[in-house]
Structures are given as C-alpha cells and as structure tokens.
Write a structure and sequence with these properties.
Layout lengths: L12 E7 L16 E2 L2 E2 H11 L5 E5 L4 H8 L5 E5 L4 H12 L6 E6 L7 H10 L5 E7 L4 E5 L2 E6 L5 E3 L3 E4 H10 L9 H7 L4 E5 L20 E13 L4 E3 L2 E3 L4 E2 L7 H13 L5 H4 L13 H13 L3 E10 L9 H12 L6 E6 L5 H4 L3 E11 L3
Parallel strand pairs: 1-4, 1-6, 4-5, 7-12, 17-18
Antiparallel strand pairs: 2-3, 6-11, 7-10, 7-11, 8-9, 13-16, 13-19, 14-15, 17-19
Helix pairs in contact: 3-5, 5-6, 7-9
GO molecular function: 2-C-methyl-D-erythritol 2,4-cyclodiphosphate synthase activity; 2-C-methyl-D-erythritol 4-phosphate cytidylyltransferase activity; metal ion binding
Family: Belongs to the IspF family.
Pfam family, one: IspD
Length: 386
C-alpha cells in the first residue's frame, strides 16, 4: 500500500500487530488473520498499511504453530519480524514489547491484525497526542441505545454519551507501555493495552477513530455485497516511427520502427491498463497519467498497469483474467507470446495462466494494414476473492 499521510510519519515509530488468536467466531478453516480478504491475507493488509505509515520495525505476535501461515502472509516485506505470542492478548503484547526493548523506539503502535484497514489520518492523530500523553486510542461514539441485562431481562440503561467504541491501532510512548506491562498484576486477559497503561497511572487520550477500522469478526464480515465479477474493456493505438524503440506488452522487441508517444507508447499495456481501470470505474489512463505532465515523458508503461492493479486491489478485487489482442502487420507476435504473458502476469502479480495474448491483422486495410501504427484491445475480468 502507498497511503499518503497528511504529515511525515515518525522516524522512531515501531508497531506491534497482535495475530496470535484463533478467530473461531469467523467460522474459517484457518485463523481469520490468514484468510484471504480483498485478494490477500487479512494480516498482509495490516502489515502493508503500517509500513506505509512509516512504522519500523513491525513485530507480529503469532501463535507458536503459525510460522508457515505467517511467513506466507508476510512474504518478503522488509522491516517485519515475528515472535511467538502467549495464551492471551496481553501476554502476546508483553512478549512483543520485550522483543523491542533493546531497540527502545520512542513510540509504538499496537494493532489488531483483524482490522485490515489502517487509516492514515487516524495514525496522524494518535501520534500527535503522544507529546502530551503517555497513550492515545481511537474511539467512535455509541449510536444505539444501551441496555443493561440481567438474567435475560432489561435491568436498566446506560448513558451512551459517556461510552465510546474503542479501536486500534493504539499509540503509546514505548517506555511507558513497556513499564506498564512489566508491572501488570491483573488478569492475563487484560482487554486492551490502554487499560494496562491506565492501571499503571498513565493518561490515555482519546482521538477520533474511523469506521474503516472495523474489526473482521464474524463469517459475514468476510462476505461482500459487491458484484462478484466486474469487466472492463480497453483500446489503444500508437503510430510507428523511425528511431523509436518498440515496446509491446512490457517487452522491448527488435523492429525497424518503434511506437511514438509521450510515454514508451506500449499500446498493449495501455489497453490492459484501461481495461482494469474501467472494471473498477476508475476512469482511464489519461486521468491518472496525463500526457500533459512532463514526469510521464518516456515513462515505462509497467508503472501504469501496476497502478491500475493496485486500485483494483484497494477496491476489493483481484485480476481473474486478462485477454489481450494486438493488431498489427508486423512484427510477428507469436515468438513473443509466452514472454508477454509472463511479463503482464508479473506486473499484476498473477499467474501467467490467467493472461491470454493473441494477434491479428487487418488484411492490409487501415492504418495498421498500411504499417503506420499498432493497435491493441484488452478485456479485464476482476473477481472478489474473499
């Protein structure tokens, strides 16, 4: 993820992600933090967004038997490490804090893995509260009436104006929260870290949270009301010119002429980019990379397609299929077809088996028939993979 933060993230901000639970209420075959949601494991979302917040290092507390699941979810992300957690959330956090003790960061965020969307503005508000408070938590108002229950009967009501819904990440001065956990004498299932800090005598500020920080808890949270399938169509054409390099589907191909354009003029990747953007209703390539902007002069078109793939991922979709047709008299596409499929798949992070590349001519008709240019059209199919 490349979320933009409204202020520069702290250079001394570590993070702990609590991911040692079983998540049984989600009714999954594996703990919910490893279930695929919006195209990738839930834990991966949390890690990527905390990295985008400038957190380093990030320590993920996992169950002792979850090394393989965690390794698969985290992959090769730099600045991320794991530790084995304890039997409760409080024990897991305490172990992760001890793992950071020698490095002693100034601040630390503590976050639940099951909250995959970390909101940049919330992190900014949390960190901004730490100069004057030992800890800060994001909260939301309680909007429903609250009834007190006793033996299945309503026994009274609570004042919802004094109640808040607490979210994560929670932010702390590292030295204070470490000392609070070391001094904790209460039950091992302390609840959350703000409670531990407050018991130690630390003040905890409340900042405005965000509904996007919703915790994935039940099976229905992993289902989606969005259309399961979305399709987009893309088309592009560029003229052939002497002295230009020919780039097609991310490959440089030897040819007497190349395609002319503001970027590298790769009509194949441009068509696919527009198809993916169209599938998620995100406009077209010119909206995101206008030819009037000099920074895109000569730019490699793989950047455009990678951006479109990222937007699809953020919208909750994974690329299920790409079907590309290149329209030209020359060069011959057949010898390059396999390499093109692999290159397109690598840019989008999908299996080459999900990419189709075809070629056709216009039988000598039109600008492509006269070898004045090359055209391409593409269809992108996106699917919700929850």
């Amino acid at each position: 993820m490349t979320d933009a933060f409204t202020s520069p993230p702290s250079r001394n901000l570590a993070a702990i992600i609590v991911a040692a639970g079983t998540g049984s209420r989600a009714v999954q075959d594996i703990p919910k933090q490893y279930v695929r949601w919006r195209g990738k494991p839930v834990l991966r979302h949390s890690v990527e967004r905390l990295l985008a917040a400038g957190c380093a290092p990030i320590v993920v507390a996992i169950a002792p038997d979850a090394d393989d699941l965690a390794s698969e979810a985290i992959g090769d992300l730099e600045g991320v490490e794991t530790c084995h957690g304890g039997g409760t959330r409080q024990q897991s956090v305490a172990l992760a804090l001890e793992g950071l003790a020698e490095r002693a960061p100034e601040h630390v965020l503590i976050h639940d893995a099951a909250r995959p969307i970390v909101v940049p503005e919330v992190v900014d508000r949390l960190v901004a509260a730490l100069p004057s408070h030992a800890g800060a938590i994001p909260v939301l108002p309680v909007v429903d009436s609250i009834a007190i229950e006793r033996d299945g009967m309503m026994a009274g009501k609570a004042d919802r104006e004094t109640l808040k819904r607490v979210q994560t990440p929670q932010a702390f001065r590292f030295a204070d929260i470490l000392a609070a956990h070391r001094a904790w004498q209460g039950a091992s299932d302390a609840g959350d870290d703000a409670h531990v800090l407050r018991d130690f005598g630390g003040e905890v500020a409340m900042v405005r949270g965000d509904e996007a920080l919703k915790k994935l808890t039940f099976a229905e949270d992993f289902r989606s009301s969005r259309p399961a399938i979305r399709t987009g169509l893309g088309f592009d054409v560029h003229r052939l010119a002497e002295g230009e390099e020919l780039w097609l589907a991310g490959l440089r191909i030897e040819h007497s002429h190349g395609l002319a354009g503001h970027s590298d003029a790769d009509v194949a990747l441009h068509a696919i980019t527009d198809a993916v953007l169209g599938a998620v209703g995100a406009g077209d390539i010119g909206d995101h990379f206008p030819p009037s902007d000099p920074q895109w002069k000569g730019a490699s078109s793989d950047r455009f397609l990678a951006h479109a793939g990222k937007l699809a991922d953020e919208a909750g979709y994974a690329v299920a299929n790409i079907d590309l047709t290149i329209i030209c008299e020359a060069p011959k596409i057949g010898p390059h077809r396999s390499a093109m499929r692999e290159r397109i798949a690598a840019i989008l992070g999908i299996d080459p088996a999900l990419v189709g590349v075809k070629a056709t001519t216009t039988e000598g008709l039109g600008m492509t028939g006269r070898r004045e240019g090359i055209a391409a059209q593409a269809v992108a199919t996106l699917a919700v993979f929850d």
